[in-house]
Queue: 3 jobs
Job 1
Amino acid sequence: MLAFLPAWLRAPLALLLVALNTLLHTLPLFALALLKALLPLPVWRRACSRGLARIAESWIAVNSGLFALLTRTRFRIEGAEHLQDAGNCLVLANHQSWVDIPVLQKVFNRRIPFMRFFLKQQLLWVPVLGLAWWALDFPFMRRHSRASLQKHPELRDADVAATRRACARFRGLPVAVMNFVEGTRFTAAKHARQNSPYRHLLRPKAGGTAFVLETLGDTLDSVLDVTIVYAGGIPRMRDLLAGAIREVRVHIRRLPVPRELTGDYAGDAASRVRAQQWINALWAEKDALIDRLRTEMAGRTSAADGSPP
């Protein structure tokens, strides 16, 4: 354990080691991705996709090991016993920080199929990582404002088609698709602007979930409802690198695949209503759960400090 090092040294050391690990793993990743592109045979491409996922899992495992070595962050995970039967799954989670991604990767790596996220199209241009995400078949989505969609409704159809194409590439492979249902990270300003009915969450967006279920619903075995709560408020990535995150709570709930939501979300109003009602009910339960988890964490902190809760 190197957590005894001062934060001013720990953070740059962690950043350096994570960067070196990234370069170490992306070199073979890019080489295999090139071979996959040069020989577009279905059997070969599936074999390469499995190999790429193994490289990515090794990359994630080393990163998780580095964070464990350099920090004292405690992970309290509830519901991990559900993962052995998760199979192919859709993972739904609340979204507060970029830290959510390494947290989810630590919890799920090699316990469910390699997990792929929906990413903003702009992230394709992130040096090294953007190309790695592309090689790993992460689905990139364009984000359009409400005004743009009203002026150019054909953009919505293009997004739907892109989601379906991305999901179709996962057929025939072990699959775990991750969706941050709120579509963006939580902030107090966004919460107020949306007039969100939830205390700790933004309004959920049902479209992405519905399109995954429509495209892959017959191949999915479960839905994993994941709730992430941090002690001390929403962290930044540098807080993770510096070991400033005291505790992370991750609650996992395994749900059956809602087969009634596998209809035509874009073209059928009744399907849209069913999907929105399902996700809204899920979010109301998650909001209450976050209240409970925060209360428990505050109580432990008070007990550790010797102060009244």
Job 2
Amino acid sequence: MKKMLRLCAGLILVFFLGFFLAGGRDVLRKETVSRVTDWAADSVLPSAQQKEPNPLEHPDGITRAKRLLFLRDAVDECISEKKIVPTKELPDSLLQAIVAVEDARFYSHPGFDVEGIIRATLVNLQKGEIEEGASTITQQLIKNLFLSQERSFARKTEELALAVDLEMRFSKEEILSLYLNTIYFGSGYYGIYDASRGYFNKEPQDLTLPEAAMLAGLPNAPSVYSPYEDFLLAKKRQLIVLDAMVRTGMISEQLAEEAKIAPIYLAH
């Protein structure tokens, strides 16, 4: 089964690479399809994710192809100045919380979640607005490392191609570690080390379940859910994360209820 997934992923990657080298991005940007593609792309893009402008957000075709072919080198270049905390030094509660709330099928999909895309599209069509996104942790990592916030099928296609490539070259543990160490947690904190120190004055490995759940809830909308900006909203988001952990079988309902009422002490 795993070999079959890798084969499918490889075929998709080849298709996308050929697509870009053939100038497919320019075709998709033609005004005749811009309104339709922007709306449809919105149906599978998260609406609240925030990040700093990326200087590599407008690469040429050679840069895109080079990134696909030498993705590990491109990732290393992006994280060379960052403090990386490996997953083995992070509490299980934090890893479980971020997977439960951001990408419940993280360990089984090949970089994109077909079921999640279908579900999000149906929900958004039913609501008539962007209510739910379907980006996986792998896609979010790619977007944060390399891409802009442009909402179009061209950018989404590049994101999917790079996500599949990333899954083929990195283990799930490496991807999760990269995600946690580069994602924005609000209040100026990038990466789990700075967020843990900044919010709780703790090393990441010392985080409790209530603290881990609160941090896991921030990347969805870091400027909104930061406990320094609005503690009540951060607390409500923490409850959502804990409920997701129960729903995915990662913790018991009793443990979640205990975590919900446990006091949270911020660093300042």
Job 3
Amino acid sequence: MSDPDGSIDQRIGDRLRALRARHGFTLDDLAARAAVSRAMLSRIERGDSSPTAQLLGKVCAGLGITLSELFADEPEPSPVRRRRDQSAWRDPASGYIRRNVSPSGTGTTVSISEVELPPGARVAFDSLQLRGADQHIWVFDGVLELAIGDDRHRLDAGDCIHMDFARPVTFLNPGRRPVRYAVVIGRRGLAG
């Protein structure tokens, strides 16, 4: 979901509305499942809000999907996805940039995203409770501090950690330069 014409909020809203309809949820259903107000969901779907990563994480949890699945484009299937065609989104609260790397429409159960977290930025997600899904975080550049429930981890360039979606997680860049890392999500038995 790149934003060449400034319509990213509307594109997120359209995608959210389509996913909600695909699941057969009303706004009230999704609001209850996501612990987000109906009014906020309506604003997001209309493109009247620039939702944060944390808010989108809650909505995704209510839909039983990952952020990668929310941001997945649906172009013609291809085994190759060029960098120029990879969708990117910037979190308005933290400034983090999430780029979907994986080719869409291949039927694979794995998705890969590249994230750049600015210096001093922090992003927190409540536990998503996604069954059959887990993720690896692989740091390319910089230092990433993770709080996964009560566990604390410091990851340097080249380090990788595995986690499920059962506990709250906070990503923090304690450094003075951006940290870049990959998020590799696997969904057992589900097309992603």
